[in-house]
Design a protein that fits this description.
Protein name: Alcohol dehydrogenase 6
Shape: globular
Low-confidence stretches: 1-19
Function: Alcohol dehydrogenase. Catalyzes the NAD-dependent oxidation of primary alcohols to the corresponding aldehydes. Oxidizes secondary alcohols to the corresponding ketones.
Radius of gyration: 21 Å
CATH architecture of the largest domain: Alpha-Beta Complex
Largest sheet: 7 strands, mixed
Structural class: alpha/beta
Number of domains: 2
CATH topology of the largest domain: Quinone Oxidoreductase, Chain A, domain 1
GO molecular function: alcohol dehydrogenase (NAD+) activity; S-(hydroxymethyl)glutathione dehydrogenase [NAD(P)+] activity; zinc ion binding
Number of helices: 12
Pfam family, one: ADH_zinc_N
Helix content: 10-25%
CATH class of the largest domain: Alpha Beta
Oligomer: single chain
Order of helices and strands: EEEHEEEHHEEEEHHEHEHEHEHEHEHEHE
Keywords: Metal-binding, NAD, Oxidoreductase, Zinc
Length: about 400
């Protein structure tokens, strides 16, 4: 087996673009393993098995630390459903195809790719519908950390290590279903476009796809992390005339202005509920509110900050177990409440388009990245996220 502690020159690909490895070879590499809830990640030497039928093995180049990763590790069973340990977290990343399994015809070694926690098989009823992006190919399995055959491709000393959402971007190599992988242009910088694997796509799409923000409208975005800032950007791109950022961390306000926020509000600066503050500020409520925190109480506040006659609220923040409190009257008066998953994008076909928009300077990505760290400092990245000192930390693998 290769010892990945030793730098070796990468062989040039032949005209047939053969893998630099034997596709049947087990790869030994580094990964950040979560052994149990509430404990820091541990850098381990893991083994990544060859891809099976309809699977692709990729070398992960860059990964982002998302709040969902932190929440699962430190607040499992509070806002998240239980998933088995040990596992390798990380669901926002980008890399290069190393080898492909049997019956894979759409990817070749050397392709630049973004792994996806939301598949797109292109054949099911949901994929064929313009109303949803909720493909369920291999869904039940990947949600509990395994692939189509019920096992993971990552192991440690013979013990199965589960793959978070079927991805596991905090491993130098991983294997994903070919329906959960987007091929992107060869000149895309992987240490930037990895953001389109989760946070930016989710927030941006919440505004432009799900809310369908209109020109000259008034918007409020609750939570100014990566998802929230992407929602602010979406509102700005859609032509909103007033974009109000809401966060309890004023250090994020300057960054929000970069993405298009016209003003920001700190709920802690007011004695009345933030929804009442916004209704007063806007003389009746905002046209669109996007919740990007994942807190049921903030979801309620976002919903109640919209106009009673025609306001629209989109929930982009993630929680799997929370219960939102909504007064029926607030719905009856004309408001709408919607959820969004991955921003409404058809993952396999739309992520490459978002990469193209970034390359054409129609979409900001660089501005989200506040820190860059190697894999062995991933726990530092988690602390930066927890304390609100980072927007996105890129982990170099």
């Amino acid at each position: 087996m290769y010892n990945w502690k030793v730098e070796r020159p990468r062989p040039a690909f032949t005209n047939k673009r053969k893998s630099m490895f034997n596709p049947e070879q087990v790869i030994r590499c580094k990964a950040a393993v979560a052994w149990e809830s509430g404990k820091p990640l541990s850098i381990e030497d893991v083994e990544v098995a060859p891809p099976k039928v309809h699977e692709v093995r990729i070398k992960v180049v860059a990964a982002g630390v998302c709040h969902t990763d932190w929440e699962y590790l430190y607040e499992a069973e509070k806002g998240m459903k239980f998933r088995p340990f040990p596992l390798v977290l990380g669901h926002e990343g980008a890399g290069i195809v190393e080898s492909v399994g049997p019956e894979v015809t759409t990817f070749s070694p050397g392709d630049k790719v973004i792994p996806l926690f939301l598949p797109q098989c292109g054949e099911c009823e949901r994929c064929e519908s313009a109303k949803t992006n909720h493909c369920r190919k291999n869904w039940a399995n990947t949600q509990v950390g395994v692939l189509a055959d019920g096992t993971s491709r990552i192991s440690y000393q013979g013990q199965q290590v589960y793959q978070f959402l079927g991805v596991s971007a905090f491993s130098q190599y991983t294997v994903v279903p070919h329906t959960s992988l987007a091929k992107i242009r060869s000149d895309a910088p992987l240490d930037k476009v990895f953001l389109l694997g989760c946070g930016v796509s989710t927030g941006y799409g919440a505004a432009v796809n799900t809310a369908k923000v209109e020109k000259n409208s008034t918007c409020a975005v609750f939570g100014l992390g990566a998802v929230g800032l992407a929602a602010v950007m979406g509102c700005q791109v859609a032509g909103a005339k007033r974009i109000i950022g809401v966060d309890i961390n004023p250090d994020k306000f300057a960054k929000a202005a970069v993405f298009g926020a016209t003003e920001c509000v700190n709920p802690k600066d007011h004695t009345m509920p933030i929804q009442e503050v916004l209704v007063k500020m806007t003389d009746g409520g905002v046209d669109y509110a996007v919740e990007c925190v994942g807190s049921p109480s903030i979801m309620t506040a976002a919903f109640e900050s919209t106009k009673d006659s025609c306001g629209s609220c989109v929930i982009a923040g993630w929680t799997e177990t929370g219960v939102m409190n909504v007064k029926v009257e607030k719905i009856l008066m004309g408001r709408t409440l919607r959820g969004t998953y991955f921003g409404g994008w058809k993952s396999v076909e739309d992520v490459p388009k978002l990469v193209n928009d970034y390359m054409k300077q129609k979409l900001k990505l660089d501005e989200f990245i506040t820190h860059s760290l190697p894999l062995d400092q991933i726990n530092v990245a988690f602390d930066l996220l927890r304390t609100g000192k980072s927007i996105r930390t890129v982990i170099s693998l």
